Amino acid sequence: MLGVPLWRDPVGSAAARFARERERMVEEQLVRRGITDARVLDAMRKIPRHLFVEEALRDRAYGDYPLPIGEGQTISQPYIVGIMTQLLRLTGSEKVLEIGTGSGYQTAVLAELARRVCSVERIPSLAARARATLEAMGYTNVWVRMADGTFGWPDEAPFDRILVSAAAPSLPQPLFHQLVEGGRMVLPVGDALSQALTVVERVGGEMLTTVDAGCVFVKLIGKYGWEG
Ligand code: SAH
């Protein structure tokens, strides 16, 4: 086979190694555990997750665990990103609200699968970094705002889908009101130590709630979340 020897192309070889790690992450952590939405799998196969963590952690970016991103916060475990995104049932036309931008990795997954993503982060340095990372990757359908996301994003409401990436003690009411009729929201609800992934559908103005897997998230801190 013709080709450039790997030792002559260190940048290319790192990219190829990360691509192989991504492929393995998708097979071992997502497919094997029952993630079946092909669009979710494709997005996570494509997005360079290692660019959402600091350089010293890049070699661990595709591991089966969350990683620190500074300010006491974490980038979610790949499986959690996969299952939450699958539970949203995105088709490509949706306007999505995300609460808890963090590293921006989940935001990128949503940007690949929806029409437009509005993401809210309460910690200024994280919001700024995520914005820069997403911009550098060329996403033009993402807006990141620094605010208490438990209020939602009233100026941009309503939303077809809402995803909350931090643990809520209960469903923040403003978020439900910013969901369209027929819309879906996915959020971890529980106490500080463990939560249940909860799916909320708005049907006839009523709230239909179902519970999926158990999970552990950092706290949603704000007016309709935990006290800071
Ligand atoms: N999906 C992100 C998860 C980051 S951890 C990732 O994988 O990188 C959860 C994030 O929610 C943290 O960055 C935290 O600062 C943020 N957060 C907590 N409470 C919030 C609130 N009320 N509004 C907006 N962001 C909040």
The major pleated sheet works out as:
7 strands, mixed
CA(first)-CA(last) distance: 59 Å
Strand neighbour order, sheet with most strands:
5-4-3-6-7-8-9
- The pLDDT mean sits at 94
- What ligands can be seen in this structure? S-adenosyl-L-homocysteine
According to CATH, the fold-level topology of one domain is Rossmann fold
Low-confidence stretches: none
How many DSSP-defined strands?
9
Total helical elements: 6
**Topology order in helix (H) and strand (E) letters:** HHEEHEHEHEEHEEE
The CATH architecture classification of one domain is 3-Layer(aba) Sandwich
Q: Using the CA coordinates, give the radius of gyration.
A: 18 Å
Keywords, please?
seven-stranded mixed beta sheet, alpha/beta, Rossmann fold, 228 residues, 6 helices, two-stranded antiparallel ribbon, globular, binds S-adenosyl-L-homocysteine
Explain what the structure shows:
The protein has 228 residues and is of the alpha/beta class. It has a domain at 75-215: Vaccinia Virus protein VP39 (Rossmann fold), CATH 3.40.50.150. The protein has helices at 10-31, 38-46, 78-88, 105-113, 124-136, 173-177; strands spanning 67-70, 73-75, 95-99, 116-121, 142-146, 159-164, 179-190, 195-203, 206-215. The strands form 2 sheets. The chain has a 7-stranded mixed beta sheet with strand order 5-4-3-6-7-8-9. The protein has a two-stranded antiparallel sheet with strand order 1-2. Strand 4, helix 5 and strand 5 (142-146) form a beta-alpha-beta unit. The chain is globular, with a radius of gyration of 18 Å. The model has no long low-confidence stretch (mean pLDDT 94). Bound molecules: S-adenosyl-L-homocysteine (SAH). S-adenosyl-L-homocysteine binds at residues 69, 73-76, 99-100, 102-103, 105-106, 120-123, 126, 148-150, 165-166, 218, 220-222, 225.
